[in-house]
């Protein structure tokens, strides 16, 4: 019958148009049926099978997820500095992980236990124990990990155990664990092995085994030289005193590659805006900051090593410094040579060789502006300390002209102007220094002193309070705040700040005596006595404190206790008769007349022309009934007659001719000048003790002003002197040790 045509219906089935049946056509399809390729006519799909949350597998999965979350939270808390929370999370993770292991063992075979999770939980727990300084617990946890043979590469954790033993100063065990870790780390992990060997070398240095340390660091420098190993190698050779090896190690340190880009990379070679944008973006990114830090660390190691070995590698430190400078000049750290030269000058200063220091610094006058400014700043500082203000001013000008934005130079210039009394101009220089560097504490301190001199007390107080916010425990600043409050007539605030001062320097006798003076002026004698007595205990040679204590005991009718203080005063000032008269007067008032008589006789032998002593001798001898009374009375009359004749001559001289009067006045003036110079220290004491026993009048209690002790700044005689910018620490008299080392370098 032939081939049926396409699309014809035969036996109820349409013949397909192609050999491959199209989508939507079925065997049972007939002409006119709906086109439904997705099978939507069959109705919705059956619902998904419900999740069985009570199944053991699901419980295990949820618990495992919770353990991972706890480990992450513990790590985050540690990174945020909350070590206690981190430890709690780590412990919680450990508890839940043990529950997880037990549940998994019940459901599946032991081979299916998640070892990675167990390892991370234990490792995190050990790390948190170590961070919280719970070293015994940390070591036990590390031991659990190391002894478990199922953990691969657990042996390297012995490095952490060695670190813990090192913190505990158990150096022998630290070396043992470092070596065990080194044995278990394959040679392909070169960087890790180098770090462990470096730890071994440092531990040998701590134990004093310098030869073993040298072997470790030499091996490191031969395999992968780095800055820390090179510096430690120099330290080890310095400890054993090997000069030649020190030189070689210094050359190795200089040759360590920094592996950072040159600064030229950050300079735009063209005007292409796209290139400029890229350079601007990378100029201060994290990578650039890391490069700067690495370079700064390298310079620090090299400078420290040079300062360490220069005095010992040659016959003199100057020759040693010259050798170091030559080596540095031939390396990639050429700019450090100038800093080494400045350190050479500072070493001369430490040796009190000021001339050589000045000569060394003067060599920089023809160098580039940065070095010239640094050298001129130091020279200005030196001349200022030697009170050669003209030279200090000229070098300060040179420093400012070389670098107008150098706060140290501006501060030193302000100091020279301050020394000449031009406080307004000095304040301008200090303000400019602060504008250039707001953290320049010397300028802030000095401007406070300047305002104090100008009697602008509110501004001075504001400066010192700002400085106190920066230097919380500076004794100088605390004293200045107290002093300003005292000048502002606010004794309560002054006392409060002085209390803070003695909490910082509890043994400072001047601060204690000042507190006593303030309490005395407020009428609180008991508190005043407490602080005066403490001051006397720490410094028993302060005449004003001794005078106040003696007068206090006399005022409270305890003359016997006052004797020891006046005896000490007589030892300190043996040429001042008033102290010995006070001792005798105390004996007399306490009823010990024989001791008083012996004391007066001793005073008379030392000072035969003292009228007051003779008067008391006559009175005592008369009361006791001694035969010497006539002898002393005769001497007293003779002295009084001589005194009367002298006074008549003075009066006649005043009434005489102009020429003779001027000559006599000149002679009298010279005599009085000599007396003033001889008794300048006791001048105020004489004025205050006029009413004390030793005169004809009976003793009467002194007023507050009479027994008040004057106060000298607790920071030494130079407390009002401006700080030099080059000096970063206060003087030894100002409660701290002074180091002229790096502190002489400008900021």
Structure description:
The protein is mostly helical and 747 residues long. Helix content is 67%, strand content 1%. The protein contains 33 helices and two strands. A hairpin with a 2-residue loop joins strand 1 (9-10) and strand 2. Helix 26 runs antiparallel to helix 27 (559-572). The longest helix is centred in the middle third of the chain and has 28 residues, at 286-313. The N and C termini lie far apart (112 Å). 34% of the residues are buried.
What ranges have pLDDT less than 50 throughout 5 or more consecutive residues?
A: 657-721, 725-747
End-to-end gap: 112 Å
Q: Outline, from the CA principal axes?
A: elongated
Rg over CA atoms, rounded to whole Å, is 44 Å
Beta-strand content estimate: under 5%
Q: How does the major sheet shape up?
A: 2 strands, antiparallel
Provide the structure class. mainly alpha
Number-wise, the strands total 2
Q: Number of helix segments? A: 33
Major sheet: order of its strands? Answer: 1-2
Mean pLDDT across all amino acids: 79
Relative helix content: 55-70%
Keywords: Cell projection, Cilium, Cilium biogenesis/degradation, Cytoplasm, Cytoskeleton, Flagellum, Repeat, TPR repeat
TPR repeats: 155-188, 194-227, 407-440, 441-474, 475-508, 509-542, 543-576
Biased composition (Basic and acidic residues): 720-731
GO molecular function: kinesin binding
């Amino acid at each position: 019958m032939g081939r049926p045509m396409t699309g014809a219906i035969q036996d109820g089935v349409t013949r397909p148009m192609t050999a491959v049946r199209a989508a939507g056509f079925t065997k049972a399809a007939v002409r006119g049926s709906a086109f439904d390729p997705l099978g939507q006519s069959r109705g919705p799909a059956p619902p998904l099978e419900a999740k069985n949350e009570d199944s053991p597998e699901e419980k295990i999965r949820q618990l495992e997820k919770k353990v991972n979350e706890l480990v992450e939270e513990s790590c985050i808390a540690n990174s945020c500095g909350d070590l206690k929370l981190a430890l709690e999370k780590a412990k919680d993770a450990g508890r839940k992980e043990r529950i997880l292991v037990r549940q998994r063992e019940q459901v599946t075979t032991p081979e299916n236990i998640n070892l990675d999770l167990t390892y991370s939980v234990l490792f995190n727990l050990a790390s948190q124990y170590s961070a919280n300084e719970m070293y015994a617990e940390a070591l036990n946890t590390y031991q659990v990990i190391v002894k478990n043979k199922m953990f691969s590469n657990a042996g390297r954790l012995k490095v952490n155990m060695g670190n813990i033993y090192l913190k505990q100063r158990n150096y022998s065990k630290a070396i043992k664990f470092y070596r065990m870790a080194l044995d278990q780390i394959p040679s392909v992990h070169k960087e890790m092995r180098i770090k462990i060997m470096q730890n071994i070398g440092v531990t040998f240095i701590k134990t004093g085994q310098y030869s073993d340390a040298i072997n470790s660091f030499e091996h490191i420098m031969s395999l992968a030289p780095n800055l820390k190993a090179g510096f430690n190698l120099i330290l080890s050779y310095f400890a054993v005193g090997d000069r030649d090896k020190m030189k070689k190690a210094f050359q190795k340190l200089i040759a360590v590659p920094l592996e950072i880009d040159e600064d030229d990379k950050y300079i735009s070679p063209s005007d292409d805006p796209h290139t400029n944008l890229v350079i601007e973006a990378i100029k201060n990114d994290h990578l650039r900051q890391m490069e700067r830090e690495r370079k700064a660390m390298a310079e620090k190691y090299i400078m420290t090593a040079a300062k360490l070995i220069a005095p010992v590698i040659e016959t003199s430190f100057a020759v040693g410094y010259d050798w170091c400078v030559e080596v540095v000049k031939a390396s990639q750290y050429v700019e450090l040579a100038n800093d080494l030269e400045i350190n050479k000058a500072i070493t001369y200063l430490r040796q009190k060789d000021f001339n050589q220091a000045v000569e060394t610094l003067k060599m920089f006058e023809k160098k580039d502006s940065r070095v010239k400014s640094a050298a001129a700043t130091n020279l200005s500082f030196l001349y200022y300390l030697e009170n050669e203000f003209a030279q200090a001013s000229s070098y300060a000008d040179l420093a400012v002209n070389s670098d107008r934005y150098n706060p140290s130079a501006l501060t030193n210039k302000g100091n020279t102007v301050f020394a000449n009394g031009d406080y307004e101009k000095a304040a301008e220089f200090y303000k400019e220094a602060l504008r250039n560097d707001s953290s320049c504490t010397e300028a802030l301190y000095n401007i406070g002193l300047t305002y104090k001199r100008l009697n602008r007390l509110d501004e001075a107080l504001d400066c010192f309070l700002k400085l106190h916010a920066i230097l919380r425990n500076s004794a100088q600043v605390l004293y200045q705040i107290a002093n300003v409050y005292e000048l502002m007539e606010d004794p309560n605030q002054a006392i409060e700040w002085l209390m803070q001062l003695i909490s910082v320097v509890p043994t400072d006798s001047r601060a204690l005596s000042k507190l006593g003076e303030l309490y005395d002026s407020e009428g609180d004698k008991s508190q005043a006595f407490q602080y005066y007595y403490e001051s006397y205990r720490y410094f028993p040679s302060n005449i004003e404190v001794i005078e106040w204590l003696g007068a206090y005991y006399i005022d409270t009718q305890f003359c016997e206790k006052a004797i020891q203080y006046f005896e000490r005063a007589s030892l300190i000032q043996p040429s001042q008769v008033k102290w010995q008269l006070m001792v005798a007067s105390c004996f007399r008032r306490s009823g010990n007349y024989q001791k008083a008589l012996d004391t007066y006789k001793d005073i008379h032998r030392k000072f035969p022309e003292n009228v007051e002593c003779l008067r008391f001798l006559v009175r005592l001898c008369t009361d006791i009934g001694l035969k010497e009374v006539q002898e002393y009375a005769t001497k007293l009359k003779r002295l009084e007659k001589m005194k009367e004749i002298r006074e008549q001559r003075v009066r006649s001289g005043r009434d005489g001719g102009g020429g003779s009067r001027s000559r006599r006045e000149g002679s009298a003036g010279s005599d009085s000048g000599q007396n003033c110079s001889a008794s300048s220290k006791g001048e105020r004491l004489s004025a205050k003790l006029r009413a004390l026993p030793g005169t004809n009048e009976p003793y009467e209690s002194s007023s507050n002003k009479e027994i008040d002790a004057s106060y000298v700044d607790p920071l030494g005689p130079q407390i009002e002197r401006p700080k030099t910018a080059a000096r970063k620490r206060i003087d030894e008299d100002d409660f701290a040790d002074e180091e002229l080392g790096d502190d002489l370098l400008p900021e």
